[in-house]
Write the C-alpha cells for this entry.
Amino acid sequence: MTTTAPVKMVLDCDTGVDDTLAILYAALHPAVELLGVGSVWGNVDLDTATRNCLHTVHLAGRPDVPVARGADRPLLQTEPVFAYHVHGDDGQGNAGTGRVLGEPVAESAAEQMIRIAREHPGEVEVVAVGPLTNVAIALAACPELPTLVRGITIMGGAALAPGNVTEVAEANIWCDPDAAAAVFNAGWTVTMVGLDVTMLTTLDDGHRERLAAGGTLGQYVAGILDHYIGYFAAASFGERRSCMHDALAVAVAAGTLVPDLAPLVRAYVSTEGRTRGQTVCDLRGMYMGFPEQEGARCRPVLRTDPAFADQVVDLLVAAGDAAVPVTPVAGTEEESA
Amino acid sequence: MTTTAPVKMVLDCDTGVDDTLAILYAALHPAVELLGVGSVWGNVDLDTATRNCLHTVHLAGRPDVPVARGADRPLLQTEPVFAYHVHGDDGQGNAGTGRVLGEPVAESAAEQMIRIAREHPGEVEVVAVGPLTNVAIALAACPELPTLVRGITIMGGAALAPGNVTEVAEANIWCDPDAAAAVFNAGWTVTMVGLDVTMLTTLDDGHRERLAAGGTLGQYVAGILDHYIGYFAAASFGERRSCMHDALAVAVAAGTLVPDLAPLVRAYVSTEGRTRGQTVCDLRGMYMGFPEQEGARCRPVLRTDPAFADQVVDLLVAAGDAAVPVTPVAGTEEESA
C-alpha cells in the first residue's frame, strides 16, 4: 500500500452472526471508510437481516452509516432458503437485544451501491458477504459498475476446499448461483475469500472469554458467538470453535489481512446439475506457480494467516464501551415484535 | 496385511507411457498375481493400446499373461478423444521398439474380467487405470460383479486437487464420465487413486539416469519417459519431471503403497454441464477427521509417500535383463505398419 487513506467501502450482508463481526470490523477499523451497508436475504430473511445491519452500526456507535434494504429472494425469484439453525432465530445466535435501532434509507441496496460508486469513481470497494443478489441487480441496472468501482471482494465460494452446503457449493454462492454467475462473468476482478481460508480462521471459547472481559461491545459479541460456535462444533469441527467467515473479506478488501496466496485465475460458477453453486477456479497451474492465464478475472484467496482472528478480537476489545451508545438513539427504538 | 499371498489382479489399461510402468510393476512385483490385462481406448486408440499391453507383458518376460481387447470408444458410442501429445504417436513416447509381440485372446476385456472374477470369487482386485468403459460394460453384463471381486481400484479422478483436462475433470474420468458414473454407482467400494496423490509422485531425469544404467528393461523405460517428462515439464511442472499416475493404483491395490489418508466417503461423477467428468467426493468431514457417512462407497486416496517413485525404479532396475526376452517370441513378431 502506497497510501494510508482508508478504503471506501460498501458492505453488502445477510446479517447473521459472522456478518455482525464483519460490519463491526468495517465500522471500527481506521483502514475502512464505511460509506454504506446493504442488507440481503440469506442467513436470515431480509427483515431480520436489515434489522441486524441497523442494530450493528448502532452498536458500533456509527448510526451515521446508511443501511439500505436489498433483495428478499434470489435473482430468478425462486423461494429463498435461510440458515436459522446456524445463526439463531434472530440471526444473532438467539442472544440479540431485540432492539430495533434506526431505519433503512429509502433507496434499495443496489441503488445505494450504484450511487456511492458514482460519487467516488474508482475508489469504492464493494464487499459482499451474503448471496450476491444485490450485486447482480446493481450490475444489471448499471452495467458500467465494474469500471466505476475500485474492485469487488466477496466472502463466498471454495476453490480447493469442500463446500459447506453441498459437497462443492459454499452457502453464499449456493443461495443464488445465478446471481453469483453474473458477478463472476462481469468485467471486473472478483477477489474471492472463500472456504479455503475462512474454514481455517476460527474463533473459540478462549476468544469469547477475551471478548466477554472487554467492554459492552465485546460482551455482546461473546454472547452471539455462543450458539454459532455450538453449531460449528456439531457440524464441522467436533470441538467448540467457529469460522469467522465474513470479516476476512472486509479485512482483505481493507488491506489489513494480506493474503499469502491469491493467484489470478479463470473461474466460473456452475449453475447446472448437481454441482450447481460450485465456484470452479482454474487452479491447474498450481504445480508451476500459477502462470498467467488469458481471461483470468478471479483472485481466490488460498492462504491467509489464521491468527487474523486475534486481530478482530483485539479490535473489538479495544473498542471497549466507547463505541456503544449507552442509551438508544432517540426516536429510533421500539421493542421488536 | 495378515497374509503374504499375492493379490490376484485384472489390470485394465489404455497403454500409454505410465500404463506401461503399471503393467511392468504388476507383472514383476511378487505382491501381485497378474491374471489378465485388458486394453481400452484412452491415451491412445485401442489397437495401439492393445499392442502396447502385449509388448509390455513380453518386455516383462510374462508372455503368459493374457491380454484382451476392450472398448474402442466411450460407453455411449460417442467419438473417442486420444492424448497422443502426452504419450507419443506410438503411446510409448515415440521410443517404442515398433515390435508386435503376441496376440490378444479371443474374449473381450470385459468378458475376461468377468471370467477371471468368477474363477476366483472374492479374490480378484480389478485395477482400472484408463477410461472406465470396460468396467462399465462388465458391470452391465454381470451386475453381480461387485460381489464377485475383492474390490476395485482405479487411477482416476480428483477429490481436492484440480483436474488435468478441465478445471475439475481428470483425464480417465473425463474420457467416459457415463461409464465412470456407472462404476461409482455400483455396489462396491471404489478406491480412487487420483490426482490428489498422483500429481505429487513424480519421476525426473535422476530416475531416468538410474533406469538407463540398469538392464534392458530399465533402459527401455528411460527411453519412453523422455517425451513424457517433456510433456509434463511444459504442461504442469515447469521443470523436467512427470507424474507416475497408473503404477500408484496397482501398488495401492497390491498393498505395497499404503495410503497415509484415504477416508471412506460418498462420491459421484458429474455427468452434466461444464463440470462433466468431475469426481465429486464429499470431503466436508475433513475438519473433524472424516466421521462415518451413510452410503459412503468411495475411498479417495488423499495422501501417499511421494518416495514411491523410487520403489518403482528400484523394481525395474532390479529386474535387470532377466525379465526381457532377448529374442522375440517365435511366430508372434512382425514389423508394425
In short: The mean pLDDT of chain A is 94.
